[in-house]
DNA sequence: GTACGAATCGTGCATCGACA
DNA sequence: TGTCGATGCACGATTCGTAC
């Protein structure tokens, strides 16, 4: 059980909704797929670190700030004498190592993860120093995807390839470690310093009118659904969901995309594409949300 | 499988009440 | 004073769970 678990960021959720409800440009789509793949890789790495038996604290996904510089750490493990941090890459296919430019198989230059690692290491050292801790800092780039190959790579202990991952974690797990109150204090401080509201994701611009309205399927995201009694049935995959649940799920999407907008049955009626009557929507909202005000000034919170 | 009751839903109508 | 969205009520239809 990690000291700080990873949660899917609100911006990634927003991107997913936008992908379903509007036509993204090719670049936006590519960017979203890369973000999603990166997140999946991090989750995959989390599932491996969770198995560690040694006395350690795992903190996933930290966004910290030192001297007005923000930086993100995919995964952190605090041992007795060492602060391990990890940059997880879910790259797939052949990549070519070049000290100047890391290149994908197609020859497209990408940022060398070692540069990112060095920068994070410097900032972490500064942060620990500022907080008054004297721990050794070690960083690694984890290539999590088994289909990844890095050509022309120098021997560098900072890179952990898929074939090395299990051995690496096993070695890490054998590290003698005994945590005490100082480590608990550090872990709590890091969680407190974590800037959950800061997002490194750049969302496409969107407006209500350009978004697709309607209820969608929880199983396959299709908007081709039928309402039969109390249930919504997907015409594509056959997934069955209670109407009330589908409406509330849709309301959550609306709230994510328009956090400052008011919610009433009329707006949600439109957001759901008019598939469900306003009275039914009103009843559903009334059961799960708090209503403030009356008549046309009523707002659900 | 059938019967039954409870819960839920859709519809229509009237009413409420702050606002323009 | 008209507008407009929420609300209450009545009624019938549908769905669901339970017992037999």
What does this structure look like?
This protein has 301 residues and is an alpha+beta fold. The protein folds into 2 domains: 10-193, Trna Endonuclease, Chain: A, domain 1, CATH 3.40.1350; 213-300, no CATH class. The chain is 38% helix and 22% strand. It is built from 8 helices and 14 strands. It has helices spanning 10-21, 26-49, 113-131, 162-173, 181-193, 243-257, 265-271, 278-288, and strands at 57-66, 69-78, 82-89, 93-96, 102-104, 109-110, 136-143, 148-151, 159-160, 225-228, 231-234, 240-242, 291-292, 299-300. Strands 1-2-3-7-9 form a 5-stranded mixed beta sheet, sandwiched between helices. Helix 1 (10-21) crosses helix 2 (26-49) and helix 7 (265-271) packs across helix 8 (278-288). The protein is globular and about 65 Å long. It starts with 9 loop residues before the first helix and ends with a strand. The chain binds a DNA duplex (20 and 20 nucleotides) through helix 8.
Question: Short description, anyone?
Answer:
InterPro entries: NERD (IPR011528). The protein has 301 residues and is an alpha+beta fold.
Q: How many beta-strand runs?
A: 14
CATH architecture level-2 label of the largest domain: 3-Layer(aba) Sandwich
Content of β-strand: 15-25%
SSE order: HHEEEEEEHEEEHHEEEHHHEE
Q: Return the structural class.
A: alpha+beta
Shape: globular
């Amino acid at each position: 059980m990690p000291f700080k678990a990873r949660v899917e960021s609100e911006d990634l959720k927003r991107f997913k909704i936008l992908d379903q409800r509007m036509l993204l440009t090719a670049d936006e789509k590519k960017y979203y797929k890369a973000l999603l793949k990166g997140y999946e890789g991090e989750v995959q790495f989390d599932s491996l670190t969770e198995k560690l038996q040694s006395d350690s604290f795992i903190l996933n996904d930290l966004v910290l700030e030192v001297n007005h510089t923000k930086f993100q750490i995919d995964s952190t493990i605090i041992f007795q004498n060492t602060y391990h941090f990890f940059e997880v890459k879910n790259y797939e296919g052949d990549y070519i190592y070049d000290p100047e430019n890391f290149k994908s198989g197609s020859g497209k230059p990408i940022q060398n993860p070692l540069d990112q690692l060095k920068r994070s290491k410097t900032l972490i050292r500064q942060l620990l120093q500022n907080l008054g801790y004297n721990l050794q800092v070690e960083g690694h780039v984890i290539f999590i995807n088994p289909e990844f190959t890095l050509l022309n790579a120098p021997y560098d202990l900072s890179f952990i390839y898929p074939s090395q991952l299990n051995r690496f974690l096993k070695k890490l797990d054998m590290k003698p470690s005994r945590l005490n109150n100082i480590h608990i204090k550090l872990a709590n401080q890091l969680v407190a310093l974590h800037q959950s509201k800061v997002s490194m994701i750049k969302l496409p611009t969107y407006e209500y009118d350009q978004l697709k309205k309607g209820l969608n399927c929880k199983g396959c995201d299709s908007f081709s659904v039928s309402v039969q009694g109390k249930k919504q049935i997907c015409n594509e995959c056959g997934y069955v969901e209670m109407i009330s649940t589908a409406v509330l799920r849709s309301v959550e999407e609306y709230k994510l995309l328009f956090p400052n907008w008011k919610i009433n049955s009329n707006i949600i009626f439109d957001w759901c594409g008019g598939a469900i009557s306003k009275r039914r929507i009103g009843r559903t909202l009334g059961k799960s949300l708090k209503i403030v005000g009356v008549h046309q000034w009523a707002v659900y919170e």
